[in-house]
Amino acid sequence: MFKKVLIVEDHESVSISVQKSLTDLGIPYDSRDYVYYCDDAIKRIEKAIAENEPYELLITDLSFEEDTPQLLKTGVDLIKAVKEIQPKMKTLVFSIENRAHVAQLLLKELDIDAFIPKARHDAKDLKLAIEALANGKKYFSNNLKQTVKDETPFKFTDYDTVLLKLLANGTAQKDIPIYFKKHNVVPAGLSSIEKRLSQIKTTLNLSSNEHLIAYVKDRKVI
Amino acid sequence: MFKKVLIVEDHESVSISVQKSLTDLGIPYDSRDYVYYCDDAIKRIEKAIAENEPYELLITDLSFEEDTPQLLKTGVDLIKAVKEIQPKMKTLVFSIENRAHVAQLLLKELDIDAFIPKARHDAKDLKLAIEALANGKKYFSNNLKQTVKDETPFKFTDYDTVLLKLLANGTAQKDIPIYFKKHNVVPAGLSSIEKRLSQIKTTLNLSSNEHLIAYVKDRKVI
DNA sequence: CCCGACATTACGGTTTCCCGTAACGTTTAG
DNA sequence: CTAAACGTTACGGGAAACCGTAATGTCGGG
């Protein structure tokens, strides 16, 4: 089992619960630390490396309240920073996010070792994950919603998200070509923009731009 | 201190932590129960009344995962139901919601006794609240964000939300009068609808319907 | 170099939205 | 009852979005 664990979680109640789970797994009090901010986390990790007692496991949330300015704003930022200074540390993400494709993306892009969504039986889930990691395995929670892929058979490209963000920010459709040409986004023609929007709406059975914006906001595409 | 407490929370990790807080306050194990669903909660409460050992305190979340169909879908539904059968029970809401005006609304409309947002020091906050309630006081967390009122000086009416929901669902502006006339919403004239939308956008400095929909989605107006 | 396939842009007609003005209806005060 | 004030609706011109089609550009293979 792990001898040194760091918990990064800005909700005290959740942090307490994670600590209890570690206790249940036989990880003693002095084997773990907890912090409320990513910036504190990276400092601790650096210090632990310097003292030749590096952490073995990182348990982190993804989103943090931005009440005080931080260099590392999200769990993703933190994991990237950790991978730079201690690439072999095991990383477990414990987040309210429950969409399988988001978890898979983290698994692939950031090479995390486990993803647990905060849900009905998340404490049990968490323990199973930690045990799996201690045995050198990866752990992908089965409480993740696979349905999202089915609900959204449509794949939004980077071009789409830029376009949708401009619309959601109030840019008139006819002015988008100006922005695209300035920022070297192609295709920049108004006609192409109209066609793309039309195609997206047809595919997703959406009948207006307002409908489309509501759709992507609900699904956190933008 | 309370002798019988019911915790309604669908995240196991949070539930565990709330229970630990109760333990810290000297409320023993057999004095409390916890459930994952609102429907289970109301059953327990009814049973407790029938057995002449009613609960004294209800600690509930607001939003629940809708994985299985429930009669009571939200904490608000639950509290309303509870107030009908046991109006004197103390009610404490423990939610991710941290906007002061939402909490105040619950305080006023549902006559809840305390509101604690899940945040950095929510466990401490929760304990303070429970102690206050045990002493017959109400407790309004000071971790709530007062800023929202300033950010949104605009007050959306019921008419506005109906209108915006129609737009967000893809109803064409020109077709909204048809819907309004059918459902006896006034004013129903296209001209009035245009004027109202225009007024909202001018007031909030929004330049298009897309912009407006993004705005209300971000602020959970609809 | 030429050609075809494809992506991108340009253009024009139609619909919808936008916005100002005027007409109509209702309520209230005198 | 009338007049004024206000809310609602009707109308019309202009702008933007929508959508089909044609023209132009781009890239690779022959």
UniProtKB/TrEMBL annotation, chains A, B:
Claim: Transmembrane helix is one of the keywords in the record: no
InterPro entries the UniProt entry points to: CheY-like_superfamily, Sig_transdc_resp-reg_receiver
PROSITE patterns in alphabetical order: RESPONSE_REGULATORY
GO biological process: phosphorelay signal transduction system
Domain Response regulatory: 4-133
Gene3D superfamilies with a match to the protein in the record: 3.40.50.2300
Coiled coil residues, start to end: none
The protein's name in its UniProt record: Response regulator transcription factor
Highest taxon of source: Bacteria
Keywords, in A-Z order: Phosphoprotein
Modified residues (4-aspartylphosphate): 61
